[in-house]
């Protein structure tokens, strides 16, 4: 039977790869493994009581609407809520500019469906989000990469890359996954300036922007794009903006959204109809009610306080236990930090020794679409207790001291 099917797969399936992160998440099911691998919010902070209250209310008051088929665009009150929240960020959109998706991962896939032809050039920062690569790669693009440093994408190298005529730029400018780095204001402005000059649109992915622990909020690229075109309060449409409730409410609800020009939303709706018809109306109603009551804002404050503490503990333990020659980022928010070992090390190989010590991380090479990054790795600090942060980093330090190539 396997022989019958294996010759019938579409050619694009050859480009589909299992996520290293998804595979490593299986390790979290082993109680003796301390995992810094997944990009997981802390489950003990999920708003269980509030969700339970809202679910009961919805099923008592609107069971037919919650459990019935719904519109592809999304639950209208939720789209209005997102539009109102967006206006507080400095630019106005209408619900017609918003499509609700089954998580931001679906948003990435839908964008790939409507924009990417085989051989199209897609410009990404390097390293970049593995989930975006998984979403885009089956559509057979060619990636153009621009290196990053502690201020984000190195825009002094961007103009040369833009001469390659990319279809769009994909970037996570705030608390980037995997590095945790935030693009500086100067570079954000230069990025937007260059994209207007070369006529290249931006896809701005912003799942972590509200999870800031320290420092000043920076304008989003979509805000700067609107200012650049001379209409600071209006949506210019040069930048498509993605976000999600996964990090600010609960990932299991699988709720994200896209803000885009209405003609782009129309194409995305057509693509989504072929994928899942619509996102769960029940889950959308849950998010709307919790948001309407102001609870998401309260919840974000609570989780930021805890994640701030956990980040500080991880940084403290890295200083204590890492051998010389290892560098790491100091994120001002989000869920991750990024470690770079001396050249010649392979974190995939080091991962085997780490598992023996009952600790897990994500090797960095998967985040590099054109190769490289073998000496890098990602750590998640949000989903570990203080005790496990201290024990886990000590174990990692032991692994590196014993097996790292200097």
How does this model look, in words?
Helix content is 42%, strand content 14%. The chain has helices at 2-6, 20-25, 48-61, 63-67, 76-87, 103-115, 130-136, 158-162, 185-198, 221-228, 262-275, 281-292, 295-321, 347-356, 386-403, and strands at residues 34-35, 98-101, 121-126, 142-149, 152-153, 168-171, 202-205, 239-244, 256-259, 327-328, 336-340, 359-360, 362-363, 376-380. The protein is α/β, with parallel strands linked by helices. It starts with a helix and ends with a helix. The strands form three sheets. The chain has an eight-stranded mixed beta sheet with strand order 2-9-8-7-6-3-4-5, with helices on both faces. Strands 10-11-14-13 form a four-stranded antiparallel beta sheet. The chain folds into two domains: 10-47 and 297-403, Alpha-Beta Complex (Aspartate Aminotransferase, domain 1), CATH 3.90.1150; 49-295, Aspartate Aminotransferase, domain 2. The longest helix has 27 residues, at 295-321. The protein contains 15 helices and 14 strands.
Characteristics:
alpha/beta; four-stranded antiparallel sheet
Biggest pleated-sheet summary: 8 strands, mixed
End-to-end C-alpha gap: 50 Å
Q: Using only CA atoms, what is the Rg? A: 21 Å
Count every beta strand, where a strand is a DSSP E run of 2 or more residues. 14
H/E element order: HHEHHHEHEHEEHEHEHEEHHHEEHEEEH
CATH topology of the largest domain: Aspartate Aminotransferase, domain 2
Shape category:
globular
Question: Which structural class matches the secondary elements?
Answer: alpha/beta
Unreliable parts: none
CATH superfamily of the largest domain: Type I PLP-dependent aspartate aminotransferase-like (Major domain)
Q: What number of domains?
A: 2
Strand order of the largest sheet: 2-9-8-7-6-3-4-5
The top level CATH class name of the largest domain = Alpha Beta
């Amino acid at each position: 039977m396997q022989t019958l099917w294996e010759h019938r797969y579409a050619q694009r399936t050859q480009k589909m790869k299992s996520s290293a992160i998804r595979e490593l998440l299986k390790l979290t099911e082993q109680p003796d493994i301390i995992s810094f691998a997944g990009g997981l919010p802390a489950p003990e902070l999920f708003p269980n009581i509030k969700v339970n209250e809202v679910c009961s209310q919805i099923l008592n008051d609107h069971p037919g609407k919650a459990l019935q088929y719904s519109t592809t665009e999304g639950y209208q009150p939720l789209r209005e809520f997102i539009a109102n929240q967006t206006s507080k960020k400095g630019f106005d959109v209408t619900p017609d500019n918003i499509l609700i998706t089954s998580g931001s991962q679906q948003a990435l896939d839908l964008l790939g469906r409507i924009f990417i032809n085989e051989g199209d050039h897609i410009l990404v920062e390097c390293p970049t989000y593995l989930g975006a690569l998984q979403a885009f790669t089956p559509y057979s693009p060619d990636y153009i990469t621009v290196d990053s440093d502690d201020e984000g994408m190195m825009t002094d190298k961007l103009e040369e890359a833009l001469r390659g005529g990319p279809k769009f730029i994909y970037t996570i400018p705030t608390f980037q996954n995997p590095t945790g780095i935030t693009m500086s204001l100067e570079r954000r402005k230069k990025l937007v300036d260059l994209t207007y000059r070369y006529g290249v649109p931006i896809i701005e992915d912003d799942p972590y922007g509200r999870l800031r622990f320290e420092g000043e909020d920076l304008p989003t690229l979509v805000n700067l794009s609107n200012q650049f075109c001379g209409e600071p309060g209006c949506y210019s449409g040069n930048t498509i903006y993605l976000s999600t409730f996964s990090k600010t409410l609960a990932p299991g609800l699988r709720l994200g959204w896209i803000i885009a020009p209405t003609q782009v939303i129309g194409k995305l709706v057509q693509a989504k109809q072929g994928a899942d018809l619509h996102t769960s109306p029940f889950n959308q109603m849950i998010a709307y009610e919790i948001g309407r009551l102001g609870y998401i804002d309260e919840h974000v404050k609570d989780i930021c306080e805890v994640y701030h503490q956990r980040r500080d503990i991880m940084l403290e333990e890295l200083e204590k236990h890492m051998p010389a020659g290892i560098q790491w980022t100091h994120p001002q928010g989000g869920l991750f930090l990024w470690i770079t070992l001396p050249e010649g090390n392979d974190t995939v190989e080091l991962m085997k020794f780490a598992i023996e010590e009952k600790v897990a991380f994500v090797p960095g090479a998967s985040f590099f679409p054109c190769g490289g990054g073998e000496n890098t790795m990602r750590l998640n600090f949000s989903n570990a207790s203080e005790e496990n942060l201290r024990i886990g980093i000590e174990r990692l330090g032991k692994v590196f001291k014993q097996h790292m190539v200097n």
